[in-house]
Amino acid sequence: MEQMPTEPSGATAALTFSIGGNLTVNRLGFGAMRLAEGAGHSSESLVWTGPDDPENARAVLRRAVELGVDLFDTADSYGVGANEELIASALFPYKAGTVISTKSGVVRPSPGEWIPLGRPEYLKQQCELSLRRLKADHLDLLFLHRVDPQVPLAEQIGALGELREQGKVRHIGLSEVTIGEIEEAVRTAPIAAIQSRYNVTDLDNDAVVDYCAAREIAFLAYFPLAIGAHASPDSPLAEVARETGATPGQVALAWLLHRSPCVLPIPGTRSLAHLAENQDAAKVRLTQEQFDRLTKTA
Question: Is 64 left (phi over 0), alpha (psi -120 to 50) or beta?
Fold first, then answer.
């Protein structure tokens, strides 16, 4: 197999991004949701407890730091708080430069329910609980997990803005939002990041990525790996993987890194081997022709 080139080229040359202009991170982060019980690509409904093997989960998180990951993403609803506690148990005291992003605004009354709840008093309470579970004096990046249609968006963002003014939150983000919702939110408080599902086979948020790129807003791409037929041995991903000496998963991540300097993929895994494979995707350099070919076949 060909060796993966190591010299930067094209959009992948910028392998760091400064969130909010002052939190510089490596663009390949780590999504911690998959460390929760039942987490996976097909359904989020079982992200209800802590990991089945907590020692392995902590080993994965610590190895991620060793491999250069400095952006870890979680949510207060993953394991109903257990995921945040897991991160603290593995990584506290945090290495200098480590950025933890978490999310609030979804309530879990049962394993199969994910219900938006954006009442200001609830968001403020959840911030306090996240601070406690993460053993932090402030949250680097707090996302509104989902917009609550029952509460004016200005009130939801206003609550996060108050937390920012109090120094409890450094930067505010939004998850799964439209451009119109972003524009409405920024009228209340600065928005430093967006988090949405996005990968080479799921381009529904293309316009949002372009919007973020034009404004230097970070775009955290969750579920960044292609699945199903798009990852089959005869797929375009596999074809480009053979050309670059990489794996299809690495090519999918490299596509995201090439897509825009604002895109920060946050793949998650419970496997130390898969973790190393994902992080090696930063070494894969796609030509513009390869990038275009993958995009056209998405």
Answer: alpha
pLDDT of residue 11: 45
Q: Which residues of the chain have pLDDT under 50?
A: 1-12, 40-42
In a domain, 54, yes or no: yes
Residue 76 CA to residue 145 CA, distance in Å, equals 9
CA–CA gap between residue 221 and residue 234 (Å, rounded): 25
- Catalytic residue annotation: 78
Give the CATH number of the domain where residue 197 resides. 3.20.20.100
- Determine how many CB atoms are found less than 10 A away from the CB of residue 155: 14
**Residues 133, 134, 136: CA angle, nearest 5 degrees:** 120
What Cα–Cα distance (Å) separates residue 59 from each residue in 53, 101, 163? 10, 20, 32
C-alpha–C-alpha distance, residues 160 and 164, integer Å: 6
Q: What pLDDT was estimated at residue 297?
A: 78
Domain count, the chain: 1
pLDDT, position 226 = 72
| Tally of CB atoms within 10 A around 169 | 24
Q: Give the pLDDT score at 298.
A: 72
Secondary structure of 83-119 in HEC code, one letter for each residue: HHHHHHHHHCCCCCCCEEEEEECEECCCCCCCEECCC
Q: Is residue 73 part of a domain?
A: yes
